[in-house]
Amino acid sequence: MDKPLKILVVSQYFWPENMRINNMVEGFVAKGHEVTILTGQPNYPEGQVFPEYRKAPDIYSSYCGAKIYRVPMLARGRRSLTLALNYLSFFSSASTIGAYKLRDREFDAIFVYAVSPIMAAIPALVIGRLKKSPVFLWVLDLWPETLDAVGVVKNRRVISLVGNLVSWIYNRADYLLLQSKSFEENIRNYCTKYIAPERIVYFPSWAEDDFSADVIAPSDILKADDSTFTIVFAGNLGDAQDFPTILQAVEALKPELALRWIIVGDGRASSWLHEQVAARGLDNVFLLGRHPLEKMPPLFAAADALLVSLKTNDVFEKTIPGKVQAYLASGKPILAMIEGEAARVIKDAGAGMTCHSGDPDGLADIVRSMAALSPAQHQSMGASGRSFYLENFSKDKLFDRLETLFRHARLRSNDRR
């Protein structure tokens, strides 16, 4: 029997924040490995440290048997300046205080949950160098391209500086795990030294087990209604999701089809959405706010179709939003106003219908077409999506693949030592 691994997970975000890395930790603990987490104080997405954590931080010092080390940092707040300071404070604090807290620990592998910003990888590189442990960087966003694409940073000199930082990080990681196959060209542009092909690995996201399990209990946040076609959007409500275009399609379809548009989540566009839904009299749009993960599978089960949308640019076209895997696993048809890699996956899966990003007429057309299908056709489309998910994004398969990479890296690391 293989010896259990000692794994360090470095992530700015972790439980009780709702992040996919929580599920990975659960999975590796269940496999018998010793997992340690280096993270910050929970404050996403509200922007303030969770009150329950402030009251009793010791309760949040372990998760499913994994030990959690938290470092001090500034909360995100609601302004660009406080958000930048939040990023800066985490990677500086984790690189120093975090490294000190872990001074007596040894690790076979260090895994970085590299959601934005990329600087969160720096503590892992520091600790990896100190411990002589291999560092696995899971690249979930393309930097600095994402900064440019969303317009957060427009100064070309700043973009160039971030690019230099990205290059420094990529060249020092032992393995680069890519969320999308389309990332590789961008990634290699920042690898100034040769990186062997086996060290750049396609490693997509998965959906939590709840989404692929049979749903028994009905949703307590949405009642099923056979008299109307129900479309559910779940996730971040931000500028990138292009709600202005979605609302145009809603308005166009309102006079002709009995539709319910259910929007679940939170984000920077939440206030705008509430205002616009009220101002336009869209009484068939229901904004249900944010709910815990366990509420989502029953909600999806009450839907006739699930909606994913994303504005288009060179970066977004190479990205697969995490909700796509959850939608596929749920076995429901997908309506997608999206381009690139995500659209390709949905088409290859035979899981739904797609239209171009930013196209309200196109979205209205695929909603009409989807609503006209029979229940049997909906069921067949959903089943195709779930089958594709199990073949390509199964959590068990992905975790086994990562475990194998960890073991190979440990052998190489031991040889170097």
Please supply descriptive tags for the structure shown above.
single chain, 417 residues, alpha/beta, Rossmann fold, eight-stranded mixed β-sheet, six-stranded parallel β-sheet, 43% helix
Explain this structure.
There is one protein chain. This protein has an eight-stranded mixed β-sheet with strand order 3-4-2-1-5-6-7-8, sandwiched between helices. A six-stranded parallel β-sheet has the order 11-10-9-12-13-14, with helices on both faces. Helix content is 43%, strand content 16%. The longest helix has 22 residues, at 80-101. The chain folds into two domains: 6-206 and 394-416, Rossmann fold; 209-392, Rossmann fold (3-Layer(aba) Sandwich). α3 (80-101) runs parallel beside α4 (122-131), α9 crosses α14 (360-372) and α12 (322-330) crosses α15 (375-392). It starts with 5 loop residues before the first strand and ends with a helix. It has 417 residues and is an alpha/beta fold. The relative contact order is 0.10.
- CATH H-level superfamily of the largest domain: Glycogen Phosphorylase B
Instruction: List the domain count as a whole number.
Output: 2
Total strands: 14
Structural class: alpha/beta
Fraction of residues in β-strands: 15-25%
Fraction of helical residues: 40-55%
Helices and strands in order:
Elements: E1 6-10, H1 20-30, E2 34-39, H2 51-55, E3 62-63, E4 66-70, H3 80-101, E5 109-114, H4 122-131, E6 135-139, H5 145-149, H6 156-172, E7 175-178, H7 184-189, E8 200-202, H8 209-212, E9 229-234, H9 243-253, E10 259-264, H10 270-279, E11 285-289, H11 296-301, E12 305-309, H12 322-330, E13 334-337, H13 340-349, E14 352-355, H14 360-372, H15 375-392, H16 395-416
Parallel strand pairs: 1-2, 1-5, 2-4, 5-6, 6-7, 7-8, 9-10, 9-12, 10-11, 12-13, 13-14
Antiparallel strand pairs: 3-4
